[in-house]
Design a protein that fits this description.
Layout (H helix, E strand, L loop, with lengths): L2 E7 L2 E10 L2 E11 L6 H19 L3 E5 L7 H21 L3 E4 L6 H4 L9 H8 L9 H13 L2
Parallel strand pairs: 1-4, 4-5
Antiparallel strand pairs: 1-2, 2-3
Helix pairs in contact: 1-2, 4-5
């Protein structure tokens, strides 16, 4: 089952698409797209919608997942972290795709340790299980990959 996971931070949406099963995931693709918050929240939401529709059309996942990070200290930071995923949920509903939300607490050692010989941390887990692409593979990509991985069976 093909799943695309998302993570938002620093004015970018990172995405990772996985296929396969939890014990044998395949990295299909990964990338990032700019998404700059602006004062017009309606226009920003429309930009989010256009961005997610384009990524989903490109990746063709059967399911969607995302990691919601809440390290915000201002109204703008909160809007930049929450609005995109509210819009993603609407896009998922419109397209009939199941979607799941995850937070950092969902990524515990007990969920990952059975799948690797040595568990160090969640980022190392991703590199062990999914691999380490040569280009643009950040911790934010790893979080998006974890969201997708959590939905594999």
């Amino acid at each position: 089952m093909k799943i695309t996971g998302f993570h938002a931070s620093s004015g970018k949406i990172r995405y990772v698409t996985l296929d396969g099963a939890k014990n044998a995931p395949t990295l299909v693709d990964h990338g990032e797209r700019p998404l700059q918050l602006n004062e017009n929240r309606s226009a920003f939401s429309q930009s989010c919608r256009n961005l997610f529709v384009a990524i989903i059309a490109d990746q063709l996942p059967e399911r969607l997942a995302y990691v919601l990070s809440m390290d915000a200290k201002s109204r703008d930071q909160i809007a930049a972290l929450i609005l995109p995923f509210g819009v993603l949920n609407i896009v998922a509903l419109d397209q009939g795709k199941p979607i799941e939300e995850f937070i950092a607490a969902n990524f515990s050692k007990s969920k990952f340790a059975p799948f690797v010989p040595t568990f160090t941390n969640k980022y190392d887990f991703v590199d062990q299980v999914i691999g380490h692409p040569q280009s643009k593979w950040s911790n934010q990509h790893r979080l998006a990959a974890l969201a997708a991985w959590m939905m594999l069976t």
